[in-house]
Specification:
Chain A is of the alpha/beta class and 260 residues long. Chain A is 35% helix and 26% strand. Chain B has 200 residues and is of the alpha/beta class. The chains are: A alpha/beta (260), B alpha/beta (200).
Chain lengths: 260, 200
Amino acid sequence: MLAKRIIPCLDVKNGRNVRGVKFSADIDAGDPVELATRYDAEGADELVFYDITASSDGRSIVMDLVQQVSERVFIPLCVGGGIRTYDDVRAILKGGADKVSINSAAVLDPQIITRSAESFGSQCIVAAIDALRRPDDGSGTPSWEIYINGGRKATGIDALEWVDELVRRGAGELVLNSIDADGTRDGYDIELNRAVAERVDVPLVASGGAGTTEHIYQVLTEGKASAALAASIFHFQVYSIPEVKTYLSDRGVTVRHYEP
Amino acid sequence: MIAIADYGMGNLRSVEKAFQYLGQEAFITEDPAAVRGASHLVLPGDAAFGDAMLNLRAAGWDVAINDHVASGRPFLGICVGLQLMFATSEEMGQHTGLELFPGRCRRFPAKERVPQIGWNQISIQRPCAILHGIEEGSFFYFVHSYYVEADVAEESVAVTDYGISYTSIAARDNVFGVQFHPEKSQKVGLRLLANFAALK
């Protein structure tokens, strides 16, 4: 049976890992290569490297880290943050990443998804969205708005309509970042994940808000996510990956247990 | 010396790195003629079936692969590399493959999320040299939208469930294909690659 995935995310700034709260970063959380090695030994199912400087210098730092990690870590590596052009996508894949996560660039020019998926295959093109819950309009149906530039700029685009388009254009997987939940450790936005899961057929990665093992369990069951991404609970060793996986398998969720 | 076929598709470096990590000599080559000096040949791939076959034929890889296989030297197809070893595919039109195995590639049924992305288990159907020391039910990393349907049951060495039960490892003599990415499957994947490298 296909296992639910647990994915630690490393937010990289100036070669260090940092963590953010509601999208504003900056507490040093360690050396990314050391962390990646630890997560590999603990049985992480994938690793995401997120370049939060989003500059060309930042990119080369992240790609250098990916190179170092890929010498000894044999799990899928995904790189995101600051991707602007098709050439960026190509360079990241050539640099040794297995997948590229595209966010703001897709809003500014959706062709980047189409073209990248056609050239490299949907399996390595991940579309990430940053969604902020709209104020309750009294209809009882929740809705979310897409933000870009690290959650700073509203676009007026409805999140559920946007995910349809991303999939139509060839995104092979979606990462759903909840701006409301990011860094709060109050739990994922279950409704957002569930609403998207019921609309599209590609795998979904829930992101933003993990604080407890129960939160992860909820988003993988009620939220119908295929994978859960988390940063600070792993970086600060609130939980280890085996602890999370044991909690999940005790409750009937299929996960992959790993012994190095 | 293990040759890794570069026909313009896929993340080949990770396959090379995995063999090097295991202490094996491996090299990536765009030149099918370079395979004559290699003991083993690996055909990776992440691309669409039709494009991949066009590239293989254009560079003469189809002939080089057939020669290598006919000589009895070990051959391993990975992911789309496995799919290409079969006779036909329905991915974006009808395509003819390398025809090393009778059978075809089909798209996953609509009830599952496609592509399948993540760690899934193999159910071992019969003994196989590349599975030495690998337990029944082991998890490997899969990424694919199409699966192979083998016509000859004896050539289906392991199967995996994703909406349907499909062939995740095919083998005959020294010819092997795996649907998952052993180079991205941690310890168990490295074990499979080490088993392959140890074949004569």
